[in-house]
Specification:
The protein is built from 15 helices and seven strands. It folds into two domains: about 10-220, Endonuclease III, domain 1, CATH 1.10.340; about 235-355, Alpha-Beta Complex (Nucleoside Triphosphate Pyrophosphohydrolase). The chain is about 40% helix and about 10% strand. By secondary structure, it is of the alpha+beta class. The longest helix has 17 residues, at about 90-105.
Length: about 350
């Protein structure tokens, strides 16, 4: 048995990884050189999103845009529509901007250093380290939630997150090997995802079991500790389900910047801290003048990163003249039967489903 203060050897984890690595669509097979484009694309998609949710999006993007050059040449609206439902839409805008920068400034070749990668749009410290290590085998320290959990347990770090993040990164860096840095980074993430899980870690199967301080102290399942959560604020709004006489529904493109920037939406009031009455909401609809609005029963709830949104849905049928007046670069009419293909973000897809479920 190793001494109680022994650091876990990278070679032990790499040997485990060679036998038990996860097979993921963006991960190169053993002995195959990783594709920087695939690594970068997957890392952007995986930010705050599960592997299961990302897989179909990654495969769709790679079929549609198999190279960084083809993604750079795509229309922004097409990229945003393909991203719809994956959430955190600023990632999609940055993804497209980064593809253009790689194509226009670097000849379609990704920089192979953390410093070079961080100079690109939408690439921060984590993503730069991940691409440098996994795609180019640079000695870079990759720390995501899985890695933080493994480090907290291996070294019995009891200081709560997020204050412990610098310490956990320092510990992770101390273990990163000079050789096979990319495999090592993926190995620690796999260990956290499959063995050192948030609840009921399978310590008996862990290759680092003997050197895990938290296991020896019997506190592995309690780590990492997290600071008490702050109550999530709630915002309120009203969505306008406006139907033309031929059954088409009015959609609007949001401004390019800000939350859901550049995405299609069912038009709505601003989102605020207090609920709206139907009387005060109606003037905020895209069409001036009076319409015969009716409020649907119930509503939808959607949680963003920093707040929860509660939306009611008001419905109106537009006479032909009024519908014809609603035209512009940001407004479009979509066949109700094809609204699922409109590239709506998740919150707006919920609004559409709620309206359709009530037969409007």
């Amino acid at each position: 048995m190793p001494p109680r203060n022994a650091a876990p050897p990278a070679r032990t984890l790499l040997a485990w990884y060679d036998r038990h690595r996860r097979h993921l669509p963006w991960r190169a097979a053993p002995g195959v050189t990783a594709d920087p484009y695939a690594v970068w694309l997957s890392e952007i998609m995986l930010q705050q999103t599960t592997v299961a949710a990302v897989k179909p999006y990654f495969e769709t993007f790679l079929r549609r845009w198999p190279t960084v050059d083809s993604l750079a040449a795509a229309a922004s609206a097409d990229v945003m529509a393909a991203w719809a439902g994956l959430g955190y839409y600023a990632r999609a805008r940055n993804l497209h901007a980064c593809a253009k920068a790689v194509t226009e400034t670097h000849g379609g070749v990704f920089p192979d250093t953390e410093e070079g990668l961080r100079a690109l749009p939408g690439i921060g410290p984590y993503t730069a380290a991940a691409v440098a290590a996994i795609a180019f085998d640079r000695k870079a320290t990759v720390v995501d939630g899985n890695v933080e959990r493994v480090m907290a347990r291996i070294f019995a770090v009891t200081e709560p997150l997020p204050k412990s993040k610098p310490r956990l990164h320092e510990l992770a860096a101390s273990l990163t090997p000079a050789r096979r840095a990319g495999d090592y980074a993926q190995a620690v993430m796999d260990l956290g995802a499959t063995i050192c899980t948030p609840k009921s870690p399978a310590c008996a199967l862990c290759p680092w079991m003997e050197v895990c301080a938290a296991r020896r102290q019997g506190i592995a399942a309690d780590l990492p500790k997290k600071a008490a959560k702050i109550a999530t604020p709630v915002r309120h709004g009203v969505a306008f389900w406006m139907v033309r006489d031929d059954g088409a529904v009015l959609l609007r493109r949001r401004p390019p910047r800000g939350l859901l920037g550049g995405m299609m939406e069912i038009p709505s009031t601003p989102w605020r801290a207090t609920p709206w009455t139907t009387t005060e909401a109606a003037p905020a609809s895209p069409t001036p003048g009076k319409l015969r609005w009716r409020l649907l029963p119930g509503g939808i709830s959607h949680t963003f990163t920093h707040f929860r949104l509660e939306l009611q849905i008001m419905v109106a049928d537009l006479p032909p003249r009024r519908a014809a007046a609603l035209a512009g670069d940001d407004l479009s009419w979509v066949d109700m039967a094809k609204i699922g293909d409109a590239g709506l973000p998740s919150v707006m897809a919920k609004v559409a489903r709620h309206a359709l479920a009530h037969g409007v």
